[in-house]
Amino acid sequence: MDTLIGLKRSHSCTEVTTAHEGQEVVLCGWVSRRRDHGGLIFIDLRDRSGIMQVVFSPDHDLEAFKKAEGVRSEYVLAVKGTVQLRDAATINPHLPTGKLEVYGAELRILNAANTPPFYIQDNIDVDENVRLRYRYLDLRRPEMQYNLMLRHKVTKIMRDFFDSKGFCEIETPMLAKSSPEGARDYLVPSRVNPGKFYALPQSPQLFKQMLMVAGMEKYFQIVRCFRDEDLRADRQPEFTQLDVEMSFIDRDEILNIMEGLVSTLFEKCVDAKISTPLLRLSYDDAMARFGSDKPDMRFGMELIDISDNVRGSNFKVFDNILAAGGQVKAINVKGYAAIPRRELDGLVDYVATYGAKGLAWICYTEEGIKSPIAKFFAPEVLDAIGKTAQAETGDLLLMVADKPAVVAAALGQLRLEMARRRDLIDPNKLSFLWVVDFPMFEYNEEEKRYVAMHHPFTSPRDEDIPYLTTGELGKIKAKAYDMVLNGTEIGGGSLRIYSRDLQEKIFGAIGLSKEEAVEKFGYLLEAFEFGTPPHGGIAFGLDRLVMIMAKRSSIRDVIAFPKTQSAIDPMTQAPSTVADKQLRELSIRTSLLAKKK
Q1: Measured between alpha carbons, how far is 276 from 278 in angstroms, rounded to an integer?
Q2: pTM, full prediction
Q3: High-pLDDT (> 70) share of the chain, %
């Protein structure tokens, strides 16, 4: 094996330009591809910047040519050679360096490589677990390196943006106190305090509020957070968020600053212009029109309330649901009346996943209406339904009747599914909006109590505070807001409570006694007695944001070393068991350890 001594890299592959013609350069990188044409050997040398074609000829340098004969894919090389222009017929228009090649005069093999388990190239069809098992190879692929470089650029611009506006980046603790609300905490046992545990922070929420009490006024942080929750494509046990908090601010100022941030990010990172101010939609409108508090606005197909049209009809299924306070809503899938019956039956199973007990449908065909429920309705009722739904010949109406929450969930998801099947979603379109005026509380059927929809430190609207006294918690709206992009929540925040009295009332509303509130949040309540300014903020999911910017479908593609949906790292095999000695040092005895005894 050769060394790099005396052969120091002079350029990255894409730093070499036509201005270097005739000059000697030294390149270092990996063998992306090797082609032996008998008298000539061509090697595509790859580094992080791109690829350069290197030519080895026995006439140019016999020793280098002989070494090149033994080179294989993913070998690490250092090459000294002369830059030349390619012949017109051999120019590669798909590469930035496609007009150039380097004639190798010296070759050093810095390291050999085994045959990789998959090709180091873009658009590979490989099981994700294999990619994660060999993540160091997966990250060599250009598209993955682009994702990480994009992430770097995003965080760099974030820091510059907030610095220009007088914000201060401040780190907050990773070892904190467990919170009783929200997702499950990851717990860390304390060796020096046996039987006690730290919690890894789900977010720096209380710490950033403390910084406002401390008079910092403008804080931000790009911070690692942890949640022990069920995973999916846009969730990881450890994730990164942009955390922001400000004092003496109102909602409109926060929203305007954040609009400036995303406009700057998308213009500088992906050359996309964002039109501001962004659309603002109330939570109630979002749920009524799209069945979601994070609606995808890149297409129409809004939910249509046909409750009044079918009320009092002879169809008892609808009548009974409406009498019980439910509703009947529909979506109009334009031009899909010819849907196969088998697919319709599959849609019934699809909405059942979201709690719906059935799915009714009407096809508007050239021959007239086709529907198994049409016989239950008078012609004028069918006409009214069609008019309300703006149905035309060729359209398909899909209807769900149930409790409002079930209708929203089932029909909202069905709307997205039908848009995917009908290819209605433009992948290149960016549709931003704010969803505002969220409910302060939501009722937890399992626990039979109200819980905070966002978190219990969110401020209720001033005009709704009296409902705390009357117990009408369902009527209270919060000073909360989410930024949504293409149907994904990328950021959320609120104006905060800054009065001890109001904070204690909110704790009481979610079932915390004064004693429990002091035990868990006493330091916050105490701080509120020392002159707390009005404040508010927001947090952006950095992983989700970069995922959308990179046009990927999973945040695992924009995180260097992610976990699987089983919260496992196939490369390092984390989590793993630890030695009994370590557990004893932490005063921990597991059920597995007990069985050994």
Answers
A1: 5
A2: 0.91
A3: 97
